[in-house]
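Re: [help] complex structure
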Amino acid sequence: MLNDRKKRILQLIIEDYISTAEPVGSRTIARKYDLGISPATIRNEMSDLELLGYLEQPHTSAGRIPSAQAYRFYVDSLIEPGSLTDNDMALINSWYKERRRNIDDIFQSTAKILSRMTQNVSMVLANKDAGAVFRYIKFLPLDSSHAILCIVTDDGNVDNCVVEIPLGMRPEEMDYLAGRISRVLEGKELSEISDELLSALHMDVAEDKVLFTSFLQAIKRMSRKQNEQRVFLGGTKQLLNQPEFRDVERVKSLLGILEEEKVVRDLLVAGEDSGLKITIGTENKFTGIQDCSMVQATYRLNGKIVGTMAVLGPTRMEYGKVITVMDYLHKYLKTMFEQDKE
Amino acid sequence: MLNDRKKRILQLIIEDYISTAEPVGSRTIARKYDLGISPATIRNEMSDLELLGYLEQPHTSAGRIPSAQAYRFYVDSLIEPGSLTDNDMALINSWYKERRRNIDDIFQSTAKILSRMTQNVSMVLANKDAGAVFRYIKFLPLDSSHAILCIVTDDGNVDNCVVEIPLGMRPEEMDYLAGRISRVLEGKELSEISDELLSALHMDVAEDKVLFTSFLQAIKRMSRKQNEQRVFLGGTKQLLNQPEFRDVERVKSLLGILEEEKVVRDLLVAGEDSGLKITIGTENKFTGIQDCSMVQATYRLNGKIVGTMAVLGPTRMEYGKVITVMDYLHKYLKTMFEQDKE
DNA sequence: GTTAGCACTCTAACAAAATGAGTGCTAACA
DNA sequence: TGTTAGCACTCATTTTGTTAGAGTGCTAAC
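Output below.
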């Protein structure tokens, strides 16, 4: 175990490196922070820390930089929970207000805020199947051969699509059909509406084949859309602010990864179970981001996973700040969702 | 006027520079392209072209690069209309098919394709007010105190929002109200639905204040939403492939501009009138992109501007390819939209 | 256990020199 | 009159050499 002084020195080195991105030497520590010990003593301690695997030297005559192990220790034991400045909070509030029309906007804003506040790439995964329950369907006439099929769910969402009306079908008949279908599906969660259920329904109302086929497609598509996990990215531009990414090639390779929505989704889904998850360097399973760190927070509503947000950046990341911001956003989202439910 | 040989040499220089991004010297031209004349002769011609303002030298002992004037001349007189390879066309088709669920997806795909094919940033502006006409509104009951207000337009779009129902109002009453409002607004283009019209309506059905206020907000929002011009960006990553943007700072500054949706919108709207518009270097009015070129094509349907697409990149741009791709996309979109209408 | 002193290491910054691609000019040639 | 070979000249880029500075490790003294 590390003694208190070693811990303190390690912490200072890590934090100094996080903020400057320069290897930090014994003199720097002694000068910047008043520890009451000389550079030589610090050197000795640093030497020990290196032996223990917490520090690394890019080359003999440079200062030292924290190893992945050091960051791990830092986030596990050293980090102190911070709090946002009033300024930051005001900024967040204004960003959320800027554009808020539907749920997607909220997620998009979250991604944006997360990246702006942390100067890193952010990812937000929205699980849309947050338990929307089927209420009823309704046909709205459009013209002689088309109608709009509206599917109403209890969260107040309406999805709609244009369907073709079988020749000669009267509005009353369509209402009747809608009623029958509605009665069967009412109260089911959209994700529950399975193929079997639909085919059973098919048997039941088989007399109107054409219309029913349209309906089938619509409900399936809607169910898929509702179930769909959507990914929102933010701050790919912030990447360029990090000295680690001064080299265009590195930027390109990371952006290449982020471009693949599937990869990002997998990445996020993999870390969904735990509340707060920090993976550092090679702890990341995905090749290509093994020189990066990722902080991920999953948020739930009534026990269900609503979504997950993450910040991806160089291992030299402001973990404390990231966590603090995420925590705030988490709370913010919670109240927003609860408000929506009401 | 330039004689044929000068034109030819200028063309070769421009095309060589476009593909290599390196200043091109007289030897290069003589070696690469068999013109039957010696480097010395080419040098003389180049010297003339420089005097005429078509070529520039970064420094005395470098080759020459085309000036903005040269590019202007190139796109006006020298460029030969190309055609896409089968491979390219197949690629485009597959990209369009990849994800096509609604009109936004089509625009997004267009932006993506445009950037992929040209290795530059692409921008697509979608004018959504393509003449949607109000049909009727309908209230769908949700629970005892809420209903969903659906606004149906003749293009088969339904917009909806949740409204609060005044205490004790019965469904029949709501239907009656919906009918009255519908009759007044029917046949109007959404963009026509002005404040005056709405206030007149207000007088008319003033008995149900609360509900009507909700409705007012909804229709206004919808009208705004329909009128809204949406911007789709593509290929901010391709930027990094251009040697001009090897410097991170330049990337940052351009991305900064593109990030401002308003700026991009203004930029695109400004060039909307003409069919195909190419602005080179300082011809661009917007500061910050004056070392870039922009190729913009506006597409119409039945005389109305549906949208506009543009490619933004270094002046050293494959103008021919860009134009060819845009032309193809233009046709592709046209058939797609006409199909949709049918 | 702590610290001052010192030799040693290695990078980054700077300067000087070599390299080479390309030009402009002149004189000769067809 | 247009074209070309030859050659001196220019200037960015690359290479090489040098220096300054930050930092270390070790030792001996406190």
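The CA atoms of residues 148 and 162 of chain A lie 4 Å apart.
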